[in-house]
Amino acid sequence: MKGVQCMRYISSKSILTDPYRAGLEIGTALAPVSPEVILLFASMNYDPDFSDFFEALYDALGTRSVIVFGGTGDGIYETSGAENYGVSALGISSDGRVSWSVALEQGVQADSFAAAGACARKALADCPDASMFRMVLADGAKADGHAIVRGIAAEISGPFFGGLTGDDRKFTSSRVFLNGVEYEDAVAMLCGCGDIGFSINAASGWTPLGNPGVVEENHGCEIRTISGHSAQDFMAGQLGKPLGESDLGVVPLAAYQSGSSGHFSLRAPSHLHPDTGAVTMFGSVEKGTVVRVCSASREDVIRGVSDAVRNLAPDSPGFTPSAAIIISCAGRKWLLADRGEKELAAFFGNLGLRIPLIGFPSFGEISPFRGADGAFTSVSFHNVTFVVCLLG
Questions:
Q1: Residue 317 has pLDDT above 70, yes or no
Q2: Is 347 left (phi over 0), alpha (psi -120 to 50) or beta?
Q3: Domains of the chain with CATH codes
Q4: Distinct helix (H) and strand (E) counts, the chain
Q5: CA-to-CA distance for 192 and 37, rounded, in angstroms?
Q6: Which of 30, 66, 108, 242 is 20 to 30 A from 298 via CA?
Q7: How far apart are CA 188 and CA 21, in angstroms?
Q8: For residues 371 and 206, what is the distance between their CA atoms, to the nearest angstrom?
Q9: What pTM, to 2 d.p., does this model score?
């Protein structure tokens, strides 16, 4: 999606533990561009004092006439590095050339599909352009990511991206931020209509192994049986060992698109049920879906970053990238056993540019794939995947 170079971006991070001081540091850093929008990601260690952070942010900016959109994750990414704890933010200013719209809907735990659809309709009412920038975040402790994507895709055409917010590997709570308020059980969407260039891509590095199976019984995000076996027994048979707590978030199933033997989305386990042998995933998998267990080495994980960036070379999107948003599964961070710095180094090394960047380790990723011809596939929900959005 092409755009002229009218946009201004600035990124910043803070690792100060006091939420008010952290808010002042972020706000002071972003104020020079007079941002219209601030994308903001934070670790859960500021909870329950996010209100102090936002008070300081607005104090430093000197205005509340700015959209603040974001959420929590298992750490943060920013141009200067990755951290397990802290806040990262990207200030965006278009000098009025982009019209911004935001919406939020609660109730994802009861019905993620309905909540996502309602959120999309609200956001699109003020920003109906099909070629616009669209970002989605949802509560990773309560939402079904697959249903979130289906709900939004039922209302709009064209690409969108985002992820599920998270916590520090407790799998118990997460937050979505909108305009200085923190929400649970929510999905939110940010839209930008106007002259904004962007391009999106995703890749994982995980490889399917062993024999395929068919999901025979499920309930929401819980897979109960696969090809005559409990979900745990099927996965253990392919892995050659029982599933354990250390496999949560990092040993996914490839869920193949209907009629395809090549295109798949990944689903990582979030909970094991030892009494039934069922496995709860971070997103639902429909009955009848063909699945295969996947594995990856640390080298494979980094290769996924290279694959995601390959079709987003500086000349490829039709604009010079000026900023980047990264949403990378927290499971990738856990497997790499670092704060995310290896992925950041691989990203900048493959892009060949040093630009403002923010991101977070997520509990699920939302993205299309971008082909070599620049065309996007349909949007899917993923796990253990690296998603990048370049902004012009």
A1: no
A2: alpha
A3: 8-203+300-391 (no CATH), 207-295 (2.40.30)
A4: 8, 27
A5: 10
A6: 242
A7: 27
A8: 19
A9: 0.92
For residues 143 and 114, give the distance between their C-alpha atoms in angstroms, rounded to a whole number.
Answer: 11
187: helix, coil or strand?
A: strand
Largest interatomic CA distance in the chain: 62
Q: Which of 2-16, 77-91, 144-158 has the lowest mean pLDDT?
A: 2-16
Phi, psi of 80 (to 5 degrees): -80, -10
Write out the two tokens for 312.
Answer: 């987003």
298-376-292-245 Cα dihedral, nearest 10 degrees? 50
> For residue range 135-153, what is the model confidence (pLDDT) as tens digits?
999 999 999 999 999 999 9
**Tokens 């997103």 appear where?**
283
Start-to-end Cα distance in the chain: 9
Q: Average pLDDT for residues 187-213, to the nearest whole number?
A: 93
Cα separation, 232 vs 211, in Å, equals 15
Give the separation between CA 8 and CA 4, rounded to whole angstroms.
11
Closest among 347, 344, 235, 345 to 295, alpha carbons compared: 235
- Phi, psi torsion values for 268, nearest 5 degrees: -100, 145
Tokens linked to 68: 């603040």
The pair of three-digit structure tokens given for residue 159, joined into one six-digit string:
């690409």
Sign of CA dihedral 240, 243, 246, 252: positive
Q: Is the dihedral of CA 230, 234, 235, 240 positive or negative?
A: positive
CA–CA gap between residue 145 and residue 143 (Å, rounded):
6
From residue 242, alpha-carbon distances to 231, 236, 281, 368 in Å are 11, 5, 17, 33
Rounded CA Rg of the chain: 20
Cα–Cα distance measured from residue 206 to residue 260, given in angstroms and rounded to the nearest whole number = 17
What token pair was written down for 168?
């520090």
- Beta-bridged to residue 281, according to DSSP, are 269
Report whether 196 contacts 274 (CB < 8 A): no
Phi, psi values for residue 78, rounded to 5° = -155, 160
Q: What is the mean pLDDT of the chain?
A: 93
Spatial separation of the C-alpha atoms in residues 331 and 59, rounded to whole Å: 36
